[in-house]
Amino acid sequence: MALSFYDISVPVFVRGLGQLSHVLDKGLAHAQASGTDPAALFNARLAPDMFTLAGQVQSASDASKLGTARIAGITAPSFPDTETTYAELQARVAKTIEFLNGVDRAGVDGAEAREVVMKVRGNELKFTAERYLLQFALPNFFFHVTTAYDVLRHSGVPLSKLDYLGRF
Amino acid sequence: MALSFYDISVPVFVRGLGQLSHVLDKGLAHAQASGTDPAALFNARLAPDMFTLAGQVQSASDASKLGTARIAGITAPSFPDTETTYAELQARVAKTIEFLNGVDRAGVDGAEAREVVMKVRGNELKFTAERYLLQFALPNFFFHVTTAYDVLRHSGVPLSKLDYLGRF
């Protein structure tokens, strides 16, 4: 059984986005049930110079669609960060999943040696697609999904790690 | 170029633990420079029923050593959660990296179809080693590394995402 570059990338992002959608649902349900203003939760953050919950969701969307586009050598759709409601955030996640599910497996499998060039804070970085996925795209994606979860937990939303990991 | 099961697992954990050690160093330095009690930071958490910073580090250690042991079919060393200082936490991270660096590449490569059985909250779950790595071990590991970072950020430690991602 050979490992597939598609299998270690696209479905991992899709699963993580599904769990992100799930914890967002729980966050909104908690706000509604407890009489908390959903807008306060939407704009909650862990530090003044960190992204809000909404920003973490937008970043998880970007991390997965740009990560996948870079390894596949394709262009990701542009999603401006204009969401102001939970429904819009959920639509953003759903659009991201839709894009990822439409990525051609054959365009990813075998692409692990493809050159990926990206700019980070003014520096041009060169990776193989495999190194980019393992050292940048996946850790970056999980950072934003986890931080969205952490913002919700810090705001009192009852979640457990299985809400993040998902069902097996 | 074929993907290697070792390359998509062990070095990913080792890199993440190195960054965890780096953000812990920055946390301690910030506490010392700002006159904050390091013990308060050590025991800081994002919610009353979440792990402290120390607990997140212990969990990242466990996630990586148990994750690797399960996919390699070996036994991980037992590290009791007795750390009470930053130096002890850093030693825990270093011991975990030492264990991971000693894992035989040949025992991991080709093991992607190995059966992994684990108990989660009373349920016995069966995975292939590949599915276990991608759906459980890696997301779980990044959860704890990110949450350690988030606790530090929430406590006022100046960090940027590149402290988490590392140098390229």
Automatic annotation (TrEMBL), chains A, B:
<protein>
    <submittedName>
        <fullName>DUF1993 domain-containing protein</fullName>
    </submittedName>
</protein>
<dbReference type="InterPro" id="IPR034660">
    <property type="entry name" value="DinB/YfiT-like"/>
</dbReference>
<dbReference type="Pfam" id="PF09351">
    <property type="entry name" value="DUF1993"/>
</dbReference>
<dbReference type="InterPro" id="IPR018531">
    <property type="entry name" value="DUF1993"/>
</dbReference>
